[in-house]
Amino acid sequence: MQAPVDRPNILIFMTDQERADVVEPDHPCLTPNADRLAAEGVRFRQVYAPTAHCCPARAT
Prior knowledge:
mainly alpha
């Protein structure tokens, strides 16, 4: 079954427990899949939240 063409295909990719520079090109960590997702999609470079997104998982 194919999705209707008028609806966007959205993937929200959130990671935890690393510094922001891990996904920068000059960092020694190799992240080819994350690099491809960032290159072909939209990357938000300045995002702010009142808590870390892992807090709900840690509270249980």
